[in-house]
What does this fold into?
Amino acid sequence: MHETRHVHLIVAGRYHDMDYARLELLKLLAETPSVRTVVDGDFHRVGRLPACDLLVTYTCDIAPAAAEVQALHGFLQAGGRWLALHGTNAILRFLDDGRIAASDAHDDYMDVIGTKFLGHPPIGPFRVENAAPDHPLVAGIAPFDIVDELYLFERRGALTPLLTATFSGSIAPFAAADWQDEASPIFYHREVGAGGILYLALGHCRSHYDPSPNGAFIPHPVRCGWDYPVFHELLRRSLRWGMGL
It folds into this structure.
């Protein structure tokens, strides 16, 4: 009989089908009967994290306040684990010339995560390489092709890339537009104190009613990584890691 594991799940933000992502993550968590999950729509209750084993976030364009960042950091320092997904490190600002830039207002938060979202090319196919084939989280994961958003980051701390994808070209209208052979760490591990973070940047999803920053209606729901068995395998491994199973 497994010891009960306590998970705090935050799914919230803009430009994504948060209801879909929340449901899919809860279904994966429910595969372990001993898991008890509290679901939240912001970072306001992260003060309860000392009672939790794992924090899971699927967010975009929301950020914790300074005191909440301190609570996140303290949770990790004390041995807590955090699975950060997709847009967790994406906080946007819109420039007068129409470009989209990363906000500079939440760098304390990005310093904890270890990366800061700068942009992505249009959704399309790209190749994912295994950067650490001996690491248990990606052992046996062969290189694969996927249609998703390829997130490009500014690194803000030490991290261990597990899966990478390489991009060259322009990602306009993002302000950090031009990239040359950038090997982006789309799945990485970061140690923080006695705990750590796994960041998995795959998994974009949108419904008809989750407009992009340009306001475009989506005629067909977008599921990207959620349609791929390998993405679900990575999520399952990450959740087991987070719960110490």
